[in-house]
Amino acid sequence: MTAPPSVPAVPRRGLLLVGIAIVVTGFNLRTAVGSVGPVLEELEQGLGISSGLAGLITSMPVLCFALIGFAGPPLAARFRDGHVLAAALLAMTLGLVGRAVVSAPALFLLGTVAAMVGGALGNVLLPGLVKKWFPGRTGLVVGAYGAALSLGSALSSIVTPHVAEAVGTDGWRWGLGLWAVFALIAVLPWLVVPVRPGAGPGRHVAVRVRSLASSRLAWAMTVFFGVQSMQAYIVIGWTAQYLRDQGMAASTAGLLVGLNGLIGIPLGAVVPAGTVRQHWQRPMLLAFIACYLGGYTGLLLSPLTAAWLWVALLAVGMASFPMVLALIGLRGRTPESVAALSTFTQGWGYAIAGVGPLLVGVLRGVTGSYTGMFVLVYASVAVLLVTGWQICRERYVDDEIPELGDPSGAARPQTEVEVAGTEPPVALPRL
């Protein structure tokens, strides 16, 4: 594979502007998700919806990540990345405002879809933008916008219920709509970001990775990614409401969910460094499983006693997310196979994850209790253990999918593509 062309120098002022745009965008990637859980009860009452429909609302963000995220590469192939993100964040702004003012459940769902456009396309495009503009400081910039993402998620969980309580009647609308201000702010720098030297439309095409459907490793990675994401969105979407139903104040429940996000900031930096050591992977997996079991058992048996401890244990268990992101990079021999595995794993994984919060809402509506939720999360932990044990065995997707490489060693056509997930643009053969 030929070396990528060098990127012409960019003025420091332009780099600073791009860096600001990336970080403020990162802050907004999860605010539309984290703000709903702490005011879910008020939302149900205000819209007059059932618990099952509330479950659909908590599932919509994850489903949007799966579906809208796949649109990122084709859009990046046709338009400038900055313009795509500006439009996505503007749609997010309108969606956040729209769902805060409507009274019809269908319109609220439509607003949620619009609000998730920014998060879904940001997931796809930001890693590539970091690689393009900051090739020598990738870790620093990814860490900065990753920390901003965790901060936005935590603050949206903490601040939203306080705003709702302070306003009073229909305060949940103000709590949800508040985050539109930050999304609109994030639009502005992308409108004035300079064109990257040497860039132009038509340079990127979407990659097709259907051949990975025959790989057991790819499916094990997908199921693990999907189930751990499902755990995360059940925690984000339903923990606050569960604690409130046990008698906890809304503001306190939101604070605890915010604590969960804050704990994830340092773990996101430490866990990948441990994952690259093969002999640490399974012990780390067992530690995450133990934390999940401890957190859920504490919430089940004694939710109002040491609730902060149960939420903290769940936060440690959710560090399986940075672990699986690191494993995606370790389970391919080449950039091509890693990029294909990343797209396959995260695209289908988010589709799996979206089932969880929806099912929790349906089961709660049918049974009138959270028994179904705990059955679901305990079963999911068992799935994590089985699939996690498999993906922690050192092997490579390339060995299962001959199509990812050419055994003859002959060169194959290469095309630079944007890949959904965490991978930067790579040279990838057409499949």
Question: Which labels suit this protein?
Answer:
mainly alpha; 431 residues; two-stranded antiparallel sheet; single chain; Growth Hormone, Chain: A; disordered C terminus; 18 helices; disordered N terminus; 72% helix
Average pLDDT: 77
CATH classification, class level: Mainly Alpha
Q: Give the CATH architecture.
A: Up-down Bundle
Number of helices: 18
State the total count of DSSP E strands: 2
Give the N-to-C terminal Cα separation. Answer: 16 Å
Report the sheet-strand fraction.
under 5%
Major sheet: size, sense and barrel closure? 2 strands, antiparallel
Shape: globular
CATH superfamily: MFS general substrate transporter like domains
Give the helix/strand class: mainly alpha
How many discrete structural domains? Answer: 1
Structural notes for this entry:
With 431 residues, this protein is mostly helical. The chain has one domain (13-194, 206-400, 413-424): Up-down Bundle (Growth Hormone, Chain: A), CATH 1.20.1250.20. Helix content is 72%, strand content 2%. It is built from 18 helices and two strands. The protein has helices at residues 12-28, 31-34, 40-47, 51-69, 72-78, 81-101, 105-133, 138-167, 171-177, 179-192, 216-245, 250-275, 278-301, 307-317, 320-330, 335-353, 355-367, 371-391; strands spanning 414-417, 426-429. Strand 1 (414-417) and strand 2 (426-429) form a beta hairpin. Helix 8 (138-167) runs antiparallel to helix 12, helix 11 packs antiparallel against helix 12 (250-275) and helix 11 packs parallel to helix 16 (335-353). The chain is globular.
